[in-house]
Amino acid sequence: MDKLIIAVGLLLIVFALWQTVQKARGKAKSSCCGTAEAVSAKKVEDTDVSHYPYRYRLSIDGMMCSNCAKNVENTLNNMNGVWGKVNLGKKEAEVLSKQSVSEESFAYALQDSSYTLTGYAVIKDPGPA
After folding, report:
1. What percent of the residues of the chain are helix, what percent strand, and what percent coil, each to the nearest 5?
2. Do residues 81 and 109 lie in contact, with contact meaning Cβ atoms separated by under 8 Å?
3. In this predicted model, which residue has the larger pLDDT, 108 or 24?
4. What is the pLDDT of residues 70-122, one digit of tens each?
């Protein structure tokens, strides 16, 4: 039994060293979110904050790296009339929106990714027009 534990430990060490060398050489196959390349951020065309009367704070589980954060940000920014900014350290997104957006809509947008909406808070709702 001791020999098996030592063998498995040595195998893990060799694998870790091999991965480190591959990353150093730029040959790593993927990061935690499935891509070795940096994910580029989707540009939001309308960056005038006054055009976004609704504000939300979303808690999002599953983000591990900056590429994950950009993937979530891009998913949010692909929603119509939505502008999202992700804080990876807090695992949150602050979202501005031109119209009211339900928790279900945000959850639906994230459902095909490896990220999960775990919290939804309305920060600002301008009420009836």
Report:
1. 35, 20, 40
2. no
3. 108
4. 999 999 999 999 999 999 999 999 999 999 999 999 999 998 888 999 999 99
Q: What is the pTM of this model?
A: 0.71
DSSP bridge pairs for 121: 57
Quote the tokens at residue 20: 């480190």
Contact 39, 71 (CB under 8 A): yes
pLDDT at 39 > cutoff 90: no
CA angle 16, 72, 125 (to 5 degrees): 150
Residue that the structure tokens 């591990």 belong to: 64
Q: Taking every pair of C-alpha atoms in the chain, what is the biggest distance, in angstroms? A: 73
Cα separation of 47 and 77, whole Å? 11
Phi, then psi, of 60 in degrees rounded to 5: -130, 125
Q: Which of these, 53, 41, 48, 52, lies nearest to 78 by C-alpha position? A: 41
The DSSP bridge partners found for residue 92 are: 59, 87
**What gap in Å lies between CA 42 and CA 66, rounded to an integer?**
14
